[in-house]
Amino acid sequence: MSKPRYMEELLKIIFSWLSATFIVMGVICFMSILKSKDSPITQELTILGIVFSLLGIVFFIVQIILIIITSLKNKLHNELLLSGTKIEGTVEKVYLQKYTQYGNKSPYRILYTYTWQGKVYHQKSCLLWDKPNFMEHDSIAVYANDLGKSTIQL
Fold it and tell me: What's the rounded mean pLDDT across residues 108-129?
């Protein structure tokens, strides 16, 4: 499994595990394997099973939405690399995104600025899993389109 390039890919993984867990818990409740406490709301295992199953379905729907968003972002990235206008941008900052982890490793991000059609744009790179060899104020190749969307390739 390749490392995720976008935050939505990380969330997709999280929601897939959540949906699977809640759906399995719902099935376990329907099979009367899981026992509930003496609370009046959750006394019936079928109600508990319905709640777990519905939550699992909601998480599954969120996962599907994240898959679509990720696929659109990958398509835009590839399209920009193929047909976008290559312009020169400037690195504003390279930083480690400490609170995001995948396999005990945190990704790097590059904040960059470029000017396109008289407008100045400030953008972030996708998740970079190896430390980039860029410093602040370095020049970087930016691929942009007429809508102000852009990407970089290292």
Answer: 91
Residues with Cβ within 8 Å of residue 131, at least 6 apart in sequence = 108
CA distances from 133 to 16, 83, 93, 128, 143 (A): 34, 25, 12, 11, 19
Contact between 127 and 149 (Cβ < 8 Å): no
Round to whole Å and give the CA distance between 107 and 3.
Answer: 10
Residue 96 CA to residue 17 CA, distance in Å, equals 26
Q: Is the pLDDT of residue 67 over 80?
A: yes
Contacts of 45 (CB under 8 A, 6+ apart): 29, 30, 32, 34, 35, 36
pTM for the whole structure: 0.81
